[in-house]
Structures are given as C-alpha cells and as structure tokens.
Design goal:
Layout (H helix, E strand, L loop, with lengths): L1 E2 L2 H7 L1 H5 L3 E5 L6 H10 L4 E6 L7 H4 L3 E4 L6 H13 L4 E6 L2 E4 L8 H10 L4 E8 L1 E2 L14 E4 L4 E6 L5 E9 L1 H5 L12 E7 L30 E5 L1 H8 L15 E3 L4 H6 L10
Parallel strand pairs: 1-4, 2-3, 2-5, 3-4, 7-13
Antiparallel strand pairs: 5-12, 6-13, 7-12, 8-9, 9-14, 10-11
Length: 287
C-alpha cells in the first residue's frame, strides 16, 4: 500500500496502525534500505511502514509487503513529529522505529518473533524496552568508502559505558542510564555532544499524551527505564551503520578517518548469541 503523505496514512490507514507490533522505518537516504526492510519483515512485525522520498525505488515484491509513505526524513525533527503523531493514532499498539541501515536484534530473535517478545514483555508489566544502538562499520574503508558493508561488518567488542541519568536539579533518576561507546565514543571529536549517547527506547506501547522527545527519551519517566524495580527485563539492540555512514559522508570528518577498525574490533556475526555473549542485550527472565 502506498500513501501520498503522513496525513494520508493517518486518515486512511487506521487499520494498519491498530494492530501491532508496527515497525516504522525512516529512510534518510537509500543506503541499505531494502536490507533494512527485509530484516524487519523477517522478525514478524504485523506492519512495516517505510517513510521515504517518492523518487526512491524498491524491488517490486518487497514493495508489495510494506506500507510506503512519501516523506522526506529531514530535518531530523520531521521524524520525531511523525512518530508523535502516529503514537496518538496507534493507541494500545506496540511501535518500533529506526532508520535505514539499522537492524533490530533481541534475545533468540532467530527463532522467536517480535510479537512473542513483546507479549512476554507485556506480561512483565512493561510498556517500553531499552535498545542499545551498536555501531557497525565496514572492515575496509578503501573498498567500502561510505562505511557500510553488511557482508563485511565489524563492531566493537568492548568500550561501552553506562552513566546514571540525572534530572535538571542533578538528582539521579531511578533505573535510567545514559550509554556511550562505539564509533560515537571513539570519534567523539566529530560527534555533537547531544548525539553521543547510544541508548534509545525503540520499542514502546503507544498511549495517550505520550511524546517522544528530541533526545530519544519519552515524556513519561517510566518509559525511559531499563528494568522494573523487582528484576532485570529484556533489552534489545539496534545494530546500526548510521554513525559510520555519517562519519564517512560528512566532509568535516571523512578525511580524518582512514579506518574504523581498532584492536577491539570483531566481525559481526548477525546473530543474537554474539550480542548476548558481549553483554549488549539482556534476556532477563525470558529463557
């Protein structure tokens, strides 16, 4: 199904938004767009909605499996505005969002659907799930100058840090952490301070008066927590080429970076077990 605009989706696509989980994929460019869409279709989302400029082309068979909304995903505030409008139209549905060249991984995702994941998470009285954005990057920038190479992807096996989040008065916020690491940490001189965090609440249940804020947190504090008060909960990861792509396409950084690999780089295995072993996702009580 194709929609001329977000307004068109909200007016005529209520059935699409009424049954979750729903995946919202925002295309900043066409790099790895089809791979991103196929990955999330495979996870079992009820609806995959792609927001992309009209001139972007998709494989015909793939295009028939998604809902396409014509939209230019820039400036970045456009994406946040779109998500907040969809929240109000998708009350009660689980919603997920990411950008092109990003891929959701959760414990045992090879054998369990995202619907099963969220059904279990709901039984634990959770309405949101923390996702860490794990930077992926090409192993050879000469061969892959934009930093994107799914078949030759690397990630950092160490160098991730958590800091307690504080409110405006300096008071620690309960069960909230700010995460750093990956390319945003190693190349922080090229990353604005407000964009260095790698924590994102990418899976959440839409409810009235809920708003996504420009720093990827939500207006309701409990949505920003990593676990409930009584035990650890599931967490997931978004494995993402987005930082690598930005660093190598931005004129202010591309000439300063000849290689993303360092002594703690390892090949990405495209498997949740690797992320579990590295402590980048948490299975909680879900065995």
């Amino acid at each position: 199904m194709q929609y001329e605009s977000l307004d068109h989706l909200l007016k005529t696509g209520r059935a699409v938004l009424s049954t979750g989980p729903i995946a919202l994929i925002f295309a900043e460019d066409d790099v790895e767009l089809e791979g991103t869409l196929r990955h999330h279709l495979k996870l079992g989302f009820k609806s995959v909605i792609a927001f992309l400029p009209q001139e972007f082309t998709l494989d015909g068979a793939l295009g028939e499996r998604i809902h396409r909304v014509s939209m230019t995903c820039a400036p970045r505030t456009v994406v946040f505005d779109a998500i907040n409008r969809i929240i109000q139209a998708a009350q009660g549905s689980w919603v997920y969002y990411c950008y092109n060249a990003e891929y959701l991984f959760y414990p045992f995702c090879e054998t369990r659907t995202v619907g099963e994941l969220l059904a279990f998470h709901s039984e634990e009285r959770r309405k949101s799930m923390l996702t860490h954005v794990i930077d992926l990057y090409a192993n050879d920038l000469t061969a892959f100058p934009n930093g994107v190479a799914p078949d030759h992807a690397m990630l950092d096996k160490t160098g991730y840090y958590a800091h307690t989040r504080h409110d405006a008065s300096g008071k620690p916020l309960e069960r909230q952490l700010e995460m750093s690491g990956g390319l945003r940490w190693r190349f922080e001189d090229h990353i604005p301070y407000e964009r260095r965090r790698i924590d994102r609440i990418s899976l959440f249940k839409a409810k009235p008066d809920l708003n996504l804020l420009p720093d990827h947190t939500f207006s309701e504090a409990e949505y920003n927590t990593y676990a409930c008060p009584w035990h650890n909960n599931l967490t997931a990861a978004i494995c993402s080429f987005r930082a690598a792509k930005a660093l190598k396409t931005n004129a202010g950084s591309t000439f300063d970076i000849s290689d993303f690999c360092w002594s703690h780089s390892v090949p990405f295995e495209w498997d949740s077990r690797q992320l579990l072993d590295l402590g980048l996702i948490e299975s909680g009580q879900w065995f």
